[in-house]
Amino acid sequence: MSDRPLAADTPAPLIDLPEWKRFALAAQTCAPRPDALDLIEAPGLALDSSGQRHSSDLMAAGEALLRARDFDTQRARLLAGEPVNVTEGRAAWHTVLRAPEAPAEVRAERERMDAWVRRADAGRRWRHVVHVGIGGSDWGVRLAVTAFGYAGTWRDVRFVANIDGHAIEGGLAGLDPRETLVVLVSKSFTTAETLENGARAREWLTGAGLDPAAHLAAVTARPDRARAWGVPDDQIFRLWDWVGGRFSLWSAVSLSTTLAVGVDVLEGLRAGAAAMDAHFTQAPLAENAPVRMALAGVANRSVLGQGSLNIAPYDSRLANLVPYIQQLDMESLGKSVDAAGRPVGVPTGPAVWGMPGTDAQHTFFQWMHQGSDGAPVDFILCREADHHWPAHHRQLLANCLAQREALMRGKTLAQARAECLAEGMDAARADWLAPHRVHPGGRPNHLIALPRLSPYSLGALLALYEHRVFTQGVIWGIDPFDQWGVEYGKVLARGIVAELDPSSGQASRADTAAASGAADARHDASTRHWIERLRRGGSP
Ligand SMILES: O=P(O)(O)OC[C@H]1O[C@](O)(CO)[C@@H](O)[C@@H]1O
């Protein structure tokens, strides 16, 4: 970690800026204008922001706010690979992983991995791939494999992330070890889940009388650790310290994607993302899709108090987009202090949640329409489908547009009452039922339309969200590239694991405390109770 002083990266407190006050006032005093189509044609997708609050004053205030946050310089620093991750003193240079003119070592590693995959394809090797990784070493691959391998692939790819033993048990069940490649993906190569699950897979290979080294591949920024763990050098692919885990699918992290759906898919993802990078760099702010989404996100969260953001992909192949964006957004923006360690002073990153439509309509859309909070929604659709049932696709699209329209337009009491009367109810019943049929409307949303679900358009979509997250980080003044919050629980878990192990011979802290009649100051009473009880397993 560098000892670079924070001062150079320390923005002024947001809430002290006159530009912030102007932006907040402008956001409060304008409304969504669905009749004034507000469309940006960006690479790989179109962004319709008509469902967000918009006015020329709000846009001007947003531009002034970005200038006050030195956005141009911050963006240039991100794209130049400067250490924008201030608390860890390193770059977040994911954009270079997809740049056509990437540095030689990045291109060399791409070519080495592609050649390895092509050799495996030519030899019809690895009928089964078990991808072992978690968080950023998992979601991007799951997303791409589900998106492009939804109708099945000749290689069966399984994902094992959770430390829950059922995950690895199910991940290996029924596979022929002779035909199986286990891919361990871990930037740090220290993540407990990945190393434990990897160890079970290695035992499984050894138990089948095989040399595990021949069946293991690894992707990591620490090849030394992977080598010591037993992965041969020619099956270790590199990732770099200057890439954040949740921004890493553009690298060899996507080895399993290429094995499942081909190296062309990864190339297409990179090309779409690179085109979005160029748009993010060059488009004027008012026509810049990530910037517009970021300004709407800040207005919704920090001014209008919307606590969450719903992601509604109207494409079942994008089911894993929701957890992907959840990690990208919440691990990046789930912070309440700025780069100088001061409270930001306004609510920051929202809770991100969702589910593909139309399933979501039968699960929680009731709450979205008439619940007391509601949530801004990002609707995502593909204009063309890749199946052969156009009527299905028309229904899917109609549902997406209808839900969005209902959330925007709402329904007044008078309209609801008139509807009841038109259905033949008498006035008394109409008066009674009408309030139940009122929709407040005015719910903010984006509509993102991809021409079809190609690697290019998905790459552009993911880069759109990456840059939206970065821009919100610049406005709030927070470091979107660290994740200190994840560390605390990991450290506590390490201690508790030892205490839960009845075979370790080590008395639990709680035992020791009980024997001495003292309370264990390191645990609260409830945690102490459960350590004791769970240590005994099923016995009362
Ligand atoms: O790739 P690694 O080092 O195993 O880390 C896995 C994940 O764990 C985290 O550090 C914390 O959840 C993520 O940021 C990361 O993607």
From TrEMBL:
InterPro entries the record matches: G6P_Isomerase (IPR001672), G6P_Isomerase_C (IPR023096), Phosphoglucose_isomerase_CS (IPR018189), SIS_dom_sf (IPR046348), SIS_PGI_1 (IPR035476), SIS_PGI_2 (IPR035482)
GO MF annotation list: glucose-6-phosphate isomerase activity
Keyword RNA-binding found: no
Organism: Castellaniella denitrificans
Encoding gene (name): pgi
PROSITE patterns, per database record: P_GLUCOSE_ISOMERASE_1, P_GLUCOSE_ISOMERASE_2, P_GLUCOSE_ISOMERASE_3
Role, per record: Catalyzes the reversible isomerization of glucose-6-phosphate to fructose-6-phosphate.
Record-listed E.C. numbers: 5.3.1.9
Identification of the protein by name: Glucose-6-phosphate isomerase
Residue stretches of biased makeup (Low complexity): 507-519
Reactions that this protein is recorded to catalyse: alpha-D-glucose 6-phosphate = beta-D-fructose 6-phosphate
Keywords attached to this entry: Cytoplasm, Gluconeogenesis, Glycolysis, Isomerase
Disordered as annotated region, ranges: 503-525
Domain of life per record: Bacteria
Enzyme class per UniProt: isomerase
Localization per Swiss-Prot or TrEMBL: Cytoplasm
Active site residues according to the UniProt entry: E331 (proton donor), H362, K490
